[in-house]
Amino acid sequence: MAGFDKRVYSYEEAMDGIESGMTVVAGGFGLCGIPENLISEIKRRGVKDLTVVSNNCGVDGFGLGVLLEDRQISRILASYVGENALFERQMLDGEIDVQLTPQGTLAEKLRAGGAGIPAFYTATGYGTPIGEGKEVREFNGRKFILEEGLIGDFAIVKGWKADHYGNVIYRKTARNFNPMAATAGRITVVEVEEIVEPGELDPDQIHTPGIYVDRLIQGTFEKRIEKRTVRES
Q: Mean per-residue pLDDT for 61-66?
């Protein structure tokens, strides 16, 4: 129900039901807009053999990177290995199954899954290793490969503001993969910086309607910067 109060008051309650072997869809891009406290709760629980769907896998010691430390992830679908040396080593050593996916394709796989679309055709990846073994069709003289939509057992999402009913607003570039991830979980858990009273959010500004959200928690965030650069004087 869109009007149901989605708030929970502990991270233990927020991630109740997660088990080893599940698929977790995680929002965020680099360290921007990542559900850092929900990730920490997954680490605390010690669940193993997870399949993770995310743009990347955090950095060493933060974000999804903390789940690599105890080898909690067995498979990841991502578009970017990034700045994570442990992720790179586990991938090269064959300790983790990595399915690299073009960034736009990954976003569409989540959007399609959340919309109940089982598969779609895209030209991206045709004629490359990405397209090997996938169905090919021709449209208007161009070749396209078939990609399947994605749904996770859990989706973990970071928002900026939400009301009690789980209507969520993201802030600027922290929106990134979060709206698609929010639709692509059998159970979607959102952590936000502020929860406001119903009616305080402008309906035209809501990015994720509460119908997609199962649990909502307010947290505090470290918000690390992946790379800090300044212009030379």
A: 95
